[in-house]
Amino acid sequence: MSATTSSPPDTAISSRGLAKSYRIATSGRSHDRLSEALVARVRRPFHRREFETFDALHDLSFDIPWGEAVGIVGRNGAGKSTLLKILTRITAPSGGRVELGGRVGSLLEVGTGFHPELTGRENIYLNGSLLGMGRSEIKRRFDDIVRFSGVEKFLDTPVKRYSSGMYVRLAFSVAAHLETEILAIDEVLAVGDAEFQRKSLDKMRDVAKDGRAVLYVSHQMQTVTTLCTSAMFLDRGRLVHHGTVDDVMAAYRDSFTSFRESQEDVRRRPGSGLIRFARVTTPEVREPVDDTVITFEVGANPEIVGKYFVTCHVRDQRGVIVTQCDSRLVSQWFDPSEPHGGEVRIKDLWLQPGLYTVDMYLCQAGVFDEWQAAATFEVLPHLPYPEVVIEDGIFGAVLCDFDYEAW
Ligand SMILES: Nc1ncnc2c1ncn2[C@@H]1O[C@H](COP(=O)(O)OP(=O)(O)OP(=O)(O)O)[C@@H](O)[C@H]1O
User: Fold this and answer.
1) Calpha distance 401→332 (Å, rounded)
2) pTM above 0.95, yes or no
3) Domains of the chain, with CATH numbers?
4) 277-282 mean pLDDT
5) Which residues have any ligand 1 atom within 6 Å of their CB?
6) Most buried pick, 64, 253, 264, 276, via CB within 10 A?
7) Does 211 score more than 80 pLDDT?
8) What's the DSSP call for residue 181?
9) CB-CB contact of 171 with 184 (8 Å)
10) How much is the pLDDT for 402?
């Protein structure tokens, strides 16, 4: 049950049966009646809290050779960050064993790795010494770190005053230039600007070419495809696929498709079902600056009294809602006695490259139909970004047009 450093000749990381469980406090068994709660209290007077175990990683076994840049993909909560935290010894595994063929430099979530009260300069030295480097060794790399990060002017400012972009630039630069044998990067890079992202991907590629090993967690399939030489797909804590980038990406895409297909069956969808969506579509592939256009068709039910409204959530791969629209905001209510076809058009919503899902809801006082992942689309990288025009200080206003036509 450990993460140890040894030096297997041709393996950077070797994992066998790796597992991680978290103990989560629950409020205890719930009681429907006050009398039940009182009886339980009398029977177990000193009982305070109950815990349950949650398995974030199950039985992960894999080998990563030197010179590989491995992309780690998976849905929200799949266990990607937990795996990186074990490899960087931020957290200990609860079972199994990992052998590391060298030191691990890392960039995990913003907020880990740097001491907020210390300046940029002090944090560079602190990180180096935590990796067992002497002062002169760190000094030799200092100028490269600072030049790459572009935060020269703020070197003597405590990092707690840095913007998230500055923080990530310096943290990445430290991790990449301290020349550890293994580099573990969580997708915080998405915080940086496009130019810095490109520079960082080039740097990671150089690290792998140099014969070291890179682990890169990302939701952006395109960057994994560009950077990585192999990939792993985690699904609910299990390693379901480890192989070529193309194979893993195909499996990852299929997982979205199978969830989407399961929701096409109306019996699996929440909601009263008094009225349901018949169809929801959106263009499958698009560029960051394109309008988001979702078309839908709704069936009819003359027995419903009163009108209904439509809402729509667009989620990124982490499950975070990046935008939502509600027909009530534009005073649109619909008559259920006849079928409807409509369109939701979201303008000026610039999206990061990646996969997105669209959830659609038909509601009145309650929900008639809740169709999760009713449609999915992929935003392709579009570099260089077009010039941004700022008019009267207003930038990127999100406009939402509900534009309905009867069938
Ligand atoms: N300290 C913790 N205590 C309890 N549960 C935790 C803890 N850290 C993570 N988890 C749970 O473990 C699971 C895996 O989390 P993890 O952050 O590794 O997933 P992830 O694949 O990195 O997700 P995301 O893409 O959202 O970053 C999640 O269900 C999460 O809620």
Assistant:
1) 10
2) no
3) 2-16+58-255 (3.40.50.300), 271-406 (2.70.50.60)
4) 94
5) 22, 24, 54, 56, 74, 76-82, 318
6) 64
7) yes
8) S
9) no
10) 46
